[in-house]
Amino acid sequence: MTTGDNLIGQQLDEYRLEALLGRGGMARVYRGLDVQLRRYAAIKVIDTPFEDESEYIARFQREAQTIAQLEHPNIVRLYRYGEAVGVLYMAMQYVEGADLFNILQSYHQDGEYMLPEEAARIIREVCLALDYAHGKGVIHRDIKPSNIILNRHGQAFLTDFGLSLLAEAGTLGQVFGTPHYMAPEQAISSASVVPQSDLYSVGVILYEIFTGRLPFNAPDPLDTAMLHLSEPPPLPRTLRPDLNPELEAVILKSLGKKPEERYQTGAALARALERALRIAPPSLLQPPATGPLSIPDRVAVEMAANPLPAIPAAPDSEAEFTKDKATQAVSSSGPEAVPEPVPLTGPLEMPRPRRSGRSLYAAGVAGLVMIVLCVCLTAYALLRPRPENEAQATGSVAATDVTAGDGVSTPTRAPLATVTSPALPTAIATSAAGAETASYELLLATRGEDSLFVVNQGALPFPLDRLALGGAEPTLAGSEWGVATLQPGECVAAWKDGGNPQSPNVSCNQVGQEVIRDGPARFWKESFSVFFDGVQVGGCGNGQSQCVITIPLAGG
User: Fold this and answer.
1) What is the distance between the terminal CA atoms of the chain, rounded to a whole angstrom?
2) E strands, 54-145, where?
């Protein structure tokens, strides 16, 4: 096997290794280019000292088998597992963005805290991914911020299942994991882990998000692990007095010393967090006028500091890709690294770029300028004259069924109806005089108290963050779904809290974060209003389960 960074420039089947992304005690991870599909992938290989160790080879294979059985929107996907030129490797989904460790570091450096609604969304996505994995009998055992990747939209992806454990398999009593995020029972033996051990690690992340501190942090990793075993965490409100008691209670319950004292499923933890944040004091929920950068903004800053090279054009011959060119790309990959807490064994540690407040601001401004340019170009492309017979968008069906590791099913969303819906009407019409007008067109569909769906059935991408729904006053902001733009054929959903809520009889591709509403907050039980840019543009209800709202473009 080729040693060290001599792998850079090598090709493993269709994957050409371009840059080293990280290195742990057992494996290295490279950015690779799929030369056939012209896309990037994360390529993980066994590190040189362990290439002939049967135990590590078996663990590596088990990790690939574990990821292969996990198909969830918040878990990285496995593309391929194989061996080439004597190298055992797995190719996985490459998520362009930043890990949660770097994002939290940026908040700490700026003296700011993550917005509660963004924290709730990230925790919910991680928790539902864990519930899904636990339902498959898989316990991660190394949940920490560096193993949670956020893409450019702020969506969370759970990665690095190198220490994962099949619940029925057990271990020989060794201790694996990262001590700062390790559950007490895991500090004794990794054979004792249960699904709630992963949720304890989520509780540590929750503590860190809202206080800016780790609950336990000793100079020696073993001492840190012992603190998780024996000491109660400092009360979060002593570190941040503006936290409300309900939020503090959720954090402390997540950090219960015994598994049975914690939330039993990720969905239960996420719901409790969302309830606590709904009754948080205004000072916690309302960001100041000059508030902190959002998660997508901070991810954009990280991406600007460590830009991904453009995928090169397909070469005329393989000889055009040389090792020297690949090595040159690595040498310019970014600034020095900031270390993360040292693990007991060898989970992957990613390089940590340093940044100053000035560089953060400059990169943020550059990112915003690029966003404005992209919006302008997109608007021009969408509003240009086009043939009347241009193809229209169609929708597809998507639904997720999540089962918790303790056998308790979380609310299961019934599959959306598979009946073929009519072709989506175009939102662009040409008058007899040849003048072009355009509008957004939304379908709002409800299923009693169970659910509310917002479907973009027009031909234009819809700016979801400008939408609001509610009674006389808006109570559900479009931004709560965590999707800036709703593409034609896509939909977002709000669900009843608990039970087995059913979806309306619509066909669409569900995206974004599921919004949960309980009791009186389910405004769609009665007639409700639709607001766009703060102005009421229509209403729905009055006994009708579906209504169409047309919103003309400004100047249309």
Assistant:
1) 64
2) 78-84, 87-93, 97-99, 138-139
- Smallest Cα–Cα separation from 279: which of 241, 246, 248? 246
User: Domain spanning 1-94: which superfamily?
Assistant: Phosphorylase Kinase; domain 1 (3.30.200.20)
- The percentage of residues in the chain with a pLDDT greater than 70, rounded to a whole number, is 69
Report the chain's mean pLDDT, rounded to a whole number.
75
**Among the four given CATH numbers 3.40.50.2300, 2.120.10.30, 3.40.50.11270, 1.10.510.10, the one describing domain 97-285:** 1.10.510.10
Locate the domains of the chain by residue range.
1-94, 97-285, 428-552
Which residues are tagged catalytic?
142
Cα–Cα distance, 252 to 237 (Å, whole number)? 11
The confidence score (pLDDT) of residue 63 equals 82
Distance (Å, rounded) from C-alpha 443 to C-alpha 106?
Answer: 40
Is residue 333 predicted with pLDDT exceeding 50? Answer: no
Secondary structure of residue 97 in the 3-state scheme: strand
Residue scoring higher pLDDT (284 or 244):
244
Section 56-62 average pLDDT: 83
403's tokens: 């089962």
Q: How far is CA 548 from the centre of its chain?
A: 31
Instruction: Give the residue with greater pLDDT, 43 vs 413.
Output: 43
pLDDT over threshold 50, residue 474: yes
- Fill in the DSSP letter of residue 531: E
* Backbone torsion region of residue 390, taken as left when φ is above 0, otherwise alpha when ψ lies between -120 and 50, otherwise beta: beta
φ and ψ at residue 104, rounded to 5 degrees = -65, -40
Q: Is residue 22 a contact partner of residue 48, using CB atoms and an 8 Å limit?
A: no
Contact 509, 491 (CB under 8 A): yes
Long-range contacts of 473-481 (CB under 8 A, 24+ apart): 474/529, 474/531, 474/534, 475/521, 475/523, 476/515, 476/517, 476/523, 478/454, 479/117, 480/117, 480/513, 480/515, 481/511, 481/512, 481/513, 481/515
Average pLDDT over residues 187-206: 92
For residues 246 and 315, the model is more confident at 246
Question: 3-state SS string over 266-294?
Answer: HHHHHHHHHHHHHCCCHHHHCCCCCCCCC
> What would be the CATH architecture of the domain defined by 428-552?
Sandwich (2.60)
- Beta strands 490-496 and 515-517, pairing class: parallel
pLDDT digits (tens, 9 = 90+) for 410-422: 333 433 333 233 3
Q: Is the pTM of this model over 0.85?
A: no
Residues 6+ apart with CB under 8 A from 61: 81, 88
CA distances from 83 to 11, 49, 89, 507, 545 (A): 11, 17, 6, 42, 55
> How many C-beta atoms lie closer than 10 Å to residue 374's C-beta?
10
Q: Would you tell me how many other CB atoms lie within 10 Å of the CB of residue 310? A: 6
**Gap between the Cα atoms of 336 and 351, Å rounded:** 8
Residue 120 tokens, joined: 């709730």
Residues 6+ apart with CB under 8 A from 268: none
pLDDT confidence of residue 276: 95
